[in-house]
Amino acid sequence: MATTNRTAGKATWHNWAGNVRAVPAREVSPASVEELAAAVRKAAEDGLPAKAVGTGHSFTSAAATAGVLIRPERMSSIRSLDRAAGTVTVEAGVQLKHLNAFLAAEGLSLTNMGDIMEQTAAGATSTGTHGTGRDSASIAAQITALELVTADGSVLTCSAEENADVFAAARIGLGALGVVSSLTFAVEPLFLLTAREEPMHFDRVLGEFDQLVEENEHFEFYWFPHTDGCNTKRNNRSQGPAAPVPPVRGWLDDEFLSNGVFRAACAVGQAAPSLIPGIAQVSSRALSARTYTDIPYKVFTHPRRVRFVEMEYAVPREAAVEVLRELKSMVDSSALRISFPVEVRVAPADDIALSTASGRESAYVAVHMYRGSRYQEYFTAVEQIMTAHQGRPHWGKVHTRDADWFAGAYPRFGEFTALRDRLDPDRLFRNDYLRRVLGA
To answer: What Å distances lie between residue 221 and 112, 218, 250, 343, 384, CA to CA?
Structure first.
């Protein structure tokens, strides 16, 4: 989670990974949309930029500001549940883990979600957080309405029927159009997923990639650099009965091996990089096959206690196999030593202006480095491969792209920036990151 430290009277905010820091002029924690609108107006009166921040799980400086930092902790309630409409309305600061638990207790669920749930609802959606799905898209694609406080303190209610142009963009708005105060998500009756996790050889995964995607509702895999080993995961709806991972097996796999032992292995690899290929060989064989059935958030999400820095690109799905072969070839032929697995997921096309899956089926390729490691050489080489295949970077993860580049990568980029000009002509919600990716 993002934290704030105070030194000599100044508060320094930093993100979860620790690679982004900021010293805001002041922090505010509004408890209502009225207080939020007043805080936005006050920032404008004082000539200070304003940025809302969630739990700091972005690896970019999307939320960093030297102006007014808006904290969401006091806007974290469930506003309403409409069973007839199949929707739930939550305030921006609700963490996904609390939303998931609330919905499950009510016999409901989101259709799809990412693999961690520490983020706030607004933070996760504003940067395009996603899971994997053949037919079901990102968390933002499940939004049916949202409430947005704009630069003049106005409160806009947005949906496909009301302020539709804002709705088309603000579901993934990067904090550039205003401060999201509430979100309405589509939900459905609680269901069961059967997860089948299985080691598989790299060449087999790529050879069967399209088949694995088409035959499973949710397919993903991890490739361990310096090896030919992958761990695959197939999640599909099940009639049950529920058969969760036994507690001891869950602790062994998800806490002891995937977090405790892995953290120690990363630390050893950071101190002695020459050991990383051997450690990778062991890691790729550490988790054996398992099958279990449980409610969605207990299948989709996992604890992530080993801190890292991440880059992720969405490439056209038809380019995925070639991209992964080039990535493996690059690692194999280089002096790089990579301790973290590469994560691969998929998503259908959606209709959100700056979604990485906007207008095209996509495959996501995510690369990570242990926190504190030198990641620039690896990430630069990865980015060259991804951009050569029309990849689009995740808005909340490390990348070097700028507004001129994005204008060519997103057909609706101009639509978004024109809306920004209308809603925030004086750039109240500016920061260095938005200046780079959206232009001045």
So the answer is: 17, 10, 19, 6, 22
